């Protein structure tokens, strides 16, 4: 079996070129080369201006040079955490527009279907490219994303490099009615091989080389320099190795990999993470939606695991990819049929009954290594993984990986490495991954609250065969650690973990090591899931005539502190950092005192930049009568800086420990996306002068309706998920205004 599935590598190549496309490329290349040769400073700025016309107009093609600004005070380090926020808060709106603060600009870097090399034709909605070619095109529904600086000499990871780098991003799922040539007349019952290829390839991860002009901060996608050799896709068909305790066990043996050491594809890649050695972590969230089990019959215990706890019922139909049983465009004849995970052969090595166990993992990708296969790190457990954040890398101390399982009433987990951090492992690639991610302890979180004393404490419950609650569990008999990892949800049930309001992204505060987790919402909180101090609210949305909006409608962000910032600790203290709410909600719903400048609903994406600014993104369906999804910036304090409050909990109240009330100098809205979208994925260049976000599943005709901001090369007006880069028009530090005396 080879890693290359496709018979015709030249399919959809367009060697005749496209004049507009090459013109754009040449323009970018010439400009970049000149700037590189002059090595920054005043001369480079003059050259950049003369090449581009130096417009400050938003309609310019990402070429606007900054106006001359004051010389920064040399005594002020502009890359430190600002003490307050002073950019103009962006107003809520429901327009089909992406909006940023005054003095900021944004560009749409690339959108679904854009090519990753200059030989492929541009995306054109009247000539949608072949499904096969999408393994060299940007995928759909962009999600988690990380910028990795690249040293221009060694072509390796460099955490301090801002002007060349690899932007790595997830493609969570697909917008079927916008993806295919037949558009909204798509029907999965008549799905074709070309469409299946397009769908499989539009999932996964993109690695995209980008360049930043150090003077203008203009970003370009690199399609043809030496850096562009790193451009590539990992898809739902890419061969990926298993590592850790589950590798080689009976649970993951298939006809594709009878020794259980590898599998094909990663799917529903949602949140993300990155390691201190310079690799990307992608997460496999709602993998259950893709897997069919047509005609499958298993014993009751296996059915409980697969069907009840992992939500792949015995008649699951998936995306119907499995219907392509005799593909013509690949030699890998089971590439699609394996999505029907049924018992059909005489053993697991002769069928794909174990496809169900090959997804739901954290996958490590070394963006700088396109020879070795990505790796599924099984020691971190199997569930609907959303985000994976590593603790601060402190020499001589273990690394912890904090993770959420985004499903109603599921759990928060951590994995603590046996190995201690050695900075010599930077650029250690998959070998470093083997060192830190294959061997360690796996835990799930339990939150407690003492109403009498107001103490909020918690425990990390170990998920291993040394935990008697797991070995004695009646509902499922665990055989070994591999069984616990594959069935982490059931082990967490047995251990007695706290059922949370859909744990999404995780962020680690670089100042103090505290860990934040978004709990996006839970319509069943207060009904099938009783309220508790960590998930305290049940209320109704008064202006929702449908009566649909009940429970924890707007979500919250919980945070915890391990004693002495020791990541091996098995206890913690906690509070709720922020409650999502409408600013005019009643007091015991709007417990964080949100105002027009910072109210939000359904927190999802979240990231501490290395200065300590916390970025919060929303994926909302409750406040969308008033505002599209958004991103906010915030400057948190620490666990315990607030007080115990009474939260609305149905007809009564629930006491809950709440963080300090923030005014809008500590929490304010930074951007609002176009109607219909989710804002997700956030990363910056290390100089803090460019911040990247993703716009997932916009509606209307976005981004075509904001043409002045497009550097993406497509033709057409279908809505397209896209990556956006935001810079300051004066080239300054994002959200750093208060460090500049003239702007404070
Ligand atoms: Fe993919 Fe939980 O958002
Ligand atoms: Ca409302
Ligand atoms: Ca998400
Ligand atoms: Ca979400």
Can you tell me about this structure?
The protein is α+β, with helices and mostly antiparallel strands. The protein has a domain at 20-63 and 80-109 and 209-221 and 257-276 and 371-743. The strands form seven sheets. It has a nine-stranded antiparallel sheet. The chain has a six-stranded mixed sheet with strand order 8-7-12-11-10-9, with helices on one face. β24 and β25 (614-618) form a beta hairpin. It is globular, with a radius of gyration of 25 Å. Mean pLDDT is 91; it is low at 1-11 and 14-71. Residues 504, 520, 604, 619 line the site of one calcium ion (CA).
Strand order of the largest sheet: 13-14-15-16-17-23-22-19-18
Helix content: 10-25%
The radius of gyration computed from the alpha-carbon positions, rounded to a whole number of angstroms, is: 25 Å
Overall SS class: alpha+beta
Query: Low-confidence stretches at least 5 residues in length (pLDDT < 50)?
Result: 1-11, 14-71
For the termini, the CA-CA separation is: 61 Å
- Hetero compounds: MU-OXO-diiron, calcium ion
Number of strands: 32
Helix tally?
A: 9
- Largest pleated sheet: 9 strands, antiparallel
Strand content: 25-35%
Overall pLDDT: 91
Shape: globular
Kindly report the oligomeric state of this protein.
single chain
Walk me through the topology:
Layout (H helix, E strand, L loop, with lengths): L18 H20 L2 H12 L51 E8 L30 E8 L14 E8 L4 H4 L13 H10 L1 E9 L6 E3 L10 E3 L4 E5 L18 E3 L4 E6 L5 E5 L15 H10 L52 E4 L9 E3 L7 E6 L7 E8 L6 E9 L8 H9 L2 E11 L4 E8 L5 H4 L9 H6 L1 H8 L7 E6 L6 E5 L19 E2 L9 E2 L4 E6 L9 E9 L23 E6 L5 E5 L11 E5 L8 E7 L2 E7 L8 E6 L5 E7 L6 E6 L25 E7 L16
Helix pairs in contact: 1-2
